[in-house]
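hey
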């Protein structure tokens, strides 16, 4: 059983939902990335989504776009991100880490080498925003050889046919984008999410995490009530952006631990 599967299994037994924070590796500087990862775990994160900075992040709103710009200015690239995961693994062998990014940096390394590097570093899953299931075939094959999960996005506009395609190759969990638009938007409709999750689960036998538009404890708790995992990205990145460098870990701990408490509270 993979680290991701073990995490969801353990949470299910405890009647809890997964908390999955996202931030961009290398933001605000590479020397803080691993310590931020550990701080998120201490605050209650179950899985970490680690963003690979990219110059043209089409699905990301302005907050995460700026985080990529800051990381790229510090020369953060995919190989450096993999090194961060390897360093994190030297003291944390339990918390799953998912890389989230775009196809170009992976293609520059090559699918086979990338999958091997993921395995060596201790990466548990890879989510490539611009690889729908019908285009990620060779990458999926190489990742599967190394027991690394291919994680996919689904949206409010995803058809049953698309869900069936995702079901063929997806692993770990499915990331449901709760609204139309880019990261950081705020028009989250819990009722629509609650209706959509069972439709996804009918076609895909994996946990479903929900992200986009989750910015506070109230929304996080509502999403946890209808899904298997709460994914928070822009709000985390905003905290990094607005905090003095020496206060980032402390502020993130307070933010994430509050969200952890909220989603664990009985309804």
């Amino acid at each position: 059983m993979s680290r991701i599967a073990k995490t969801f299994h353990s949470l299910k037994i405890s009647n809890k939902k997964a908390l999955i924070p996202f931030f961009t590796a290398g933001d605000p500087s590479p020397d803080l990335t691993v310590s931020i990862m550990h701080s998120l775990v201490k605050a209650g994160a179950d899985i970490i989504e680690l963003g690979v900075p990219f110059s043209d992040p089409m699905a990301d709103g302005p907050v995460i776009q700026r985080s990529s710009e800051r990381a790229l200015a510090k020369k953060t690239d995919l190989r450096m991100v993999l090194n961060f995961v390897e360093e994190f693994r030297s003291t944390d062998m339990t918390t799953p880490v998912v890389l989230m990014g775009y196809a170009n940096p992976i293609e520059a390394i090559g699918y086979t080498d990338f999958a091997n590097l993921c395995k060596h570093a201790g990466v548990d899953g890879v989510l490539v925003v611009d690889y729908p299931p019908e285009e990620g075939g060779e990458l999926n094959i190489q990742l599967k050889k190394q027991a690394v999960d291919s994680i996919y996005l689904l949206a409010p506009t995803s058809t049953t046919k698309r869900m069936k395609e995702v079901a063929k190759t997806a692993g770990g969990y499915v990331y449901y984008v709760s609204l139309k638009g880019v990261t950081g938007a705020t028009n989250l409709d819990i009722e629509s999410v609650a209706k959509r999750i069972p439709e996804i689960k009918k076609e895909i036998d994996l946990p479903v995490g929900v992200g986009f538009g989750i910015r506070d404890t109230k929304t996080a708790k509502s999403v946890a009530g209808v899904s298997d995992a709460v994914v928070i990205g822009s709000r985390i990145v905003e905290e990094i952006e607005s905090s003095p460098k020496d206060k980032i870990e402390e502020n993130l701990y307070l933010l994430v631990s509050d969200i952890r408490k909220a989603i664990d509270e009985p309804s």
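DSSP finds twelve helices and eight strands in the chain. Residues 3-264 form a domain with the TIM Barrel fold (CATH 3.20.20.70).
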